[in-house]
Design goal:
The protein has 10 helices and 17 strands. It folds into 2 domains: about 5-80 and about 120-339, Glucose Oxidase, domain 1; about 85-115, no CATH class. It is globular, with a radius of gyration of 21 Å. α9 links the parallel β13 (about 260-265) and β14. It starts with a helix and ends with a strand. The protein has about 350 residues and is an alpha/beta fold. α4 (about 170-175) crosses α5 and α8 (about 250-255) runs parallel beside α9 (about 280-290). It has a 9-stranded mixed beta sheet. It has helices at about 5-20, 30, 50-60, 170-175, 200-210, 225-230, 235-240, 250-255, 280-290, 300-310, and strands at about 65-70, 85-95, 110-115, 120-125, 135, 140, 145, 150, 165-170, 195, 220, 245, 260-265, 295, 315-320, 330, 335-339.
Length: about 350
């Protein structure tokens, strides 16, 4: 079975279970998923590590006050995974002459988003990925699924992301190692789809800027693949069919460093096709399900990578807005690096 077919069947099966309430034997979550280090009732995940002391230390990264965007504009036509969709509809009120409100002739406009939450630059929450019906902190999610949201592990449980961000430039790492294989569709250097990023590569990225990861850090990985995202819709098919990404071993290493999130300029963070093509998104399960580490996808990393290269400093204060949308598994985010 091809990788894409396997993943499609797996996700379709999950959707059927979630939406239709099909009877499902409860799996033994204690054998499938690790317990949270923050206790049996924890729904927060790794952002528990962002303490006041962590935020205070991260604030030292603000030196010039320069703000660098790390999010793409949310616009119709960008690459979307599988059958996901997004559409914006504008509603105008009283713009017809004579229909204004009040003697001051007030008019207004507002928007309707017809969109799934995991589109554009977005965060994966604890309720996004599980093994069978077992989710973060050994949660038997089948008990908490409703038509309108999840009753446990929703984004409303998030704590702050006011912490130190670290950018790891894999393009430079692979260039300096003489092993960069690029993609002809990229207008700027990029790692080709299917390129595996190991923990040794991540460590080389840290060494390049003399950085040591700290508990509570947010790690962002620049692969150059986001150049294809920026070429939407012309390169949507190329962007979606593969991607460079971290290995399972690299994901476990990042978890051992006690980071709070991993973000990349790709649509899944992990290498696609997977190292084992019969596994569906194993890095997602390692980071989210087993370790409560959030994933940020479709991050715009090129600007902060260029700034790091220019200044020879890879760290920054992370400013990220995450709506606490109750009962949701993910949402659009805006990310800024403050220098």
């Amino acid at each position: 079975m091809k990788y894409g077919t396997f993943v499609g069947v797996a996700l379709s099966a999950f959707a059927l279970f979630a939406n239709c309430g099909i009877a499902h034997a409860q799996a033994d979550c204690k054998t499938l998923v690790k317990p949270s280090p923050f206790g049996p009732d924890d729904q927060v995940g790794a952002t528990n590590r962002i303490t006041p002391a962590v935020t205070k230390a991260a604030a030292a990264e603000i030196q010039s006050g320069a703000v660098i965007s790390m999010a793409y504009n949310l616009v119709d036509g960008v690459p979307l995974f599988g059958t996901r969709f997004t559409k914006t509809i504008l509603t105008t009120a009283a713009l017809t002459p004579g229909a204004e409100y009040g003697k001051n002739k007030l008019t207004y406009m507002e928007d309707t988003y017809l969109s799934q939450s995991h589109v554009g630059t977005h965060i994966d929450g604890m309720g996004h990925i599980g093994v069978l019906d077992c989710y973060y902190n050994q949660t038997p999610m089948g008990k908490f699924v409703t038509q309108n949201g999840i009753k446990k592990l929703g984004l409303e449980n998030l704590k702050s992301f006011a912490t130190r961000g670290v950018i790891l430039d894999m393009v430079k790492v692979f260039q300096e190692a003489g092993k960069l294989k690029t993609n002809a569709a990229c207008r700027t250097p990029c790692l080709d789809g299917g390129t595996v990023i190991t923990e040794a590569d991540l460590q080389a990225g840290l060494k390049m800027y003399n950085v040591t990861l700290r508990e509570g850090d947010a790690v962002f990985i620049h692969t150059g693949w986001g150049d294809l995202f920026n070429q939407f819709p012309a390169q949507n098919a190329n962007y979606n069919k593969a991607e460079p990404g971290i290995s399972k071993s690299a994901a476990n290493w990042l978890a051992s460093q006690k980071v709070v999130l991993v973000g990349t300029d790709t649509w899944a963070v992990e290498v696609i096709p997977s190292e084992d093509t019969m596994e569906a998104f194993p890095v997602h399960a390692i980071l989210l399900t087993d370790n409560g580490i959030h994933i940020i996808e479709n991050v715009r990393t090129d600007l902060i990578a260029a700034e790091a290269n220019s200044s020879k400093r890879a760290t920054f204060f992370l400013s990220m807005t995450v709506p606490k949308a109750a009962g949701t598994t993910g949402t659009f985010v805006n990310i800024e690096a403050i220098r």
